[in-house]
Amino acid sequence: MSDQDIFNAYIHDYPNEIKTLPCEYNFQLGALTKSEELCDETPLALHFNSQNKTVRKNYVLYNEIRKEIDGIDGSDLRRRRNVQRRSVPPSEAKVRRRDICTAYIPNQQFRILPNSLGRMKKTAKLCLVTQFSKDRMHNFMNNANNWKLPISAAIYGTDLELMEIANAVKLSNRQDIALHMVFKDSKEDDAIYPINYLRNVAMNYSNCEYILMADVDFMIYGDVVSLQDQVRELKDSQVLIIPAFETANENITDVSQFPQTKDQVSKSILDGKVDYQKNYEPYFVIKQADCPLYDQRFGGFGWNKVVHVLKLQMLSMEFIVSPTSFMIHQNHNVSDSLALWRNDIHYQKCLHKLKKIFIVETARKLGMEI
């Protein structure tokens, strides 16, 4: 409201610096305008920002223009600017060429729009905190249909991809899902998926006392009331681990075929239908105020969760396991990040190097000897 008064104030103080444009460059639309009466020229600039302003006799024409503009991907319009902004000085480029690992660190400068859809006005006791892009939208919708408590999710993509995600989530008619848009503006952003950056966004903008940090492709099962009781009983510096499983049959994509209760999971394990991997990086519930930020230098696939859990251990957090809740992985195609990890030996070496750097840095900050 009144956001343009700064211009009015400037015009008032410096009237000689204002040039009046012909009326066709300021053709107003809307129910109260008199542009069609006062301006006989063909409109060259239409003034509207919503469908409500295309109500005049040329509604069909102007509304088609509005929809065409609505469909423009702003990411494409910004690419040229980003190329110029991110150009590397020659001296810095030489240093970067010597350090091949720089190419595997994701971008950490994004435009973000917190609470672009939904907002938790009151602090919730327990929330699911996650992140995803368009290719995992169906996984998120499966989770939203199953998890009935509030959700804080960072979504990543181009303007059009984020709008598509937001429109799909709107159809759920849930008021307790908060989406935080993180805009992918350039082709450089396609290189390494900034998973830890997104986790931090989802966590920082969640209005929740306790957060369940989980990836979007894991379905959460178990008695929610019992889980809430366990969360209430958590003591300071305690983390509640939610056991994670995956199906032995990778062809199962229908989540309705997953075991829904602890008894069913136990039977599935005995029947050889579910594999449990003890080296899974655990997903957990933690008090938001106690949860350190994820290291944003880690992206894509490899060590991004491991180093965060390692930091919790170095902070002397106590790990306890929920006796009632569990998670099952939703099968999906191999991600680009995983394919890069499997096929690029330099990527693997660089992440191992970064992991060692992380351990040394964290130990030094905590005054620990390695």
Automatic annotation (TrEMBL):
Pfam families: Glyco_transf_49. The keyword Transmembrane helix applies. One of its GO terms (biological process) is protein O-linked glycosylation via mannose. The keyword Magnesium does not apply. Keywords: Glycoprotein, Membrane, Signal-anchor, Transmembrane, Transmembrane helix. It is a single-pass type II membrane protein. It comes from the Eukaryota. InterPro entries: Nucleotide-diphossugar_trans, Xyl/GlcA_transferase. It is found in: Membrane. GO terms for cellular component: Golgi apparatus; membrane. One of its GO terms (molecular function) is xylosyltransferase activity. This is Hexosyltransferase. It comes from Caenorhabditis tropicalis.
